[in-house]
């Protein structure tokens, strides 16, 4: 029988991570249309409300039901405002590992939300879900995302050469693909014991290469 993640909420000092719902569609649409999100992820460009609704109502539930992953809205505890998304993909229940990705809304960057959300998710995965490995992949030029990985205690395992596609603006205002490397990071249960994810100077974007 395929294992699946439960529909849960994870609370931190400042954040609540919970399943995406249709009330998130407007804020999700705005967040995913940010220039930096478009540069570092493979989400549709432009990202429409229809894309957001499909993600919330179809894609995310299907991934969870199939045991492949879990999408969580990251919200402020006090305001309930959507500040980002944490995503688990490529979950292997036999190996007990998963890949973690994150995006933070433009207005919420620099507050340490990415590291706080990522660390809380990892602690839940290692504790409640008994996973043994969390993997992150960051584009070689995405220093903000790499700082988040370091902040939560990840170990740099090496480089996947030419394995990432990023996006840059063209002179006519469109987008073009550029190839770059992936840096692979891992987090094991013993790695999070001394990590402090409550604050960070930068927030980043791990790649959402398999969003479609």
UniProtKB/TrEMBL annotation:
<dbReference type="InterPro" id="IPR000182">
    <property type="entry name" value="GNAT_dom"/>
</dbReference>
<dbReference type="InterPro" id="IPR016181">
    <property type="entry name" value="Acyl_CoA_acyltransferase"/>
</dbReference>
<protein>
    <submittedName>
        <fullName>GNAT family N-acetyltransferase</fullName>
    </submittedName>
</protein>
<dbReference type="Pfam" id="PF13302">
    <property type="entry name" value="Acetyltransf_3"/>
</dbReference>
<dbReference type="InterPro" id="IPR051908">
    <property type="entry name" value="Ribosomal_N-acetyltransferase"/>
</dbReference>
<feature type="domain" description="N-acetyltransferase">
    <location>
        <begin position="15"/>
        <end position="172"/>
    </location>
</feature>
């Amino acid at each position: 029988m395929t294992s699946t993640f439960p529909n849960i909420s994870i609370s931190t000092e400042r954040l609540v991570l919970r399943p995406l719902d249709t009330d998130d569609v407007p804020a999700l649409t705005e967040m995913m249309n940010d220039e930096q999100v478009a540069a570092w992820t493979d989400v549709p460009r432009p990202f429409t409300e229809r894309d957001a609704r499909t993600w919330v109502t179809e894609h995310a539930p299907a991934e969870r039901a199939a045991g492949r992953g879990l999408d969580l809205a990251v919200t402020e505890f006090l305001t309930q405002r959507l500040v980002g998304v944490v995503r688990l993909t490529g979950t292997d229940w036999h190996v007990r590992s998963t890949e973690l990705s994150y995006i933070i809304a433009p207005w919420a960057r620099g507050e340490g939300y990415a590291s706080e959300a990522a660390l809380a998710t990892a602690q839940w995965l290692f504790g409640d879900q008994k996973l043994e490995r969390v993997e992150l992949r960051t584009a070689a030029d995405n220093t903000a995302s790499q700082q988040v990985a370091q902040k939560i205690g990840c170990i740099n395992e090496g480089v996947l050469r030419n394995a990432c596609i990023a996006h840059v603006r063209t002179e006519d205002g469109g987008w073009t693909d550029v190839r770059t490397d992936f840096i692979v990071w891992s987090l094991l249960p013993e790695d999070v014991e001394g990590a402090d994810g409550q604050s960070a100077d930068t927030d980043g974007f791990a790649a959402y290469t398999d969003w479609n």
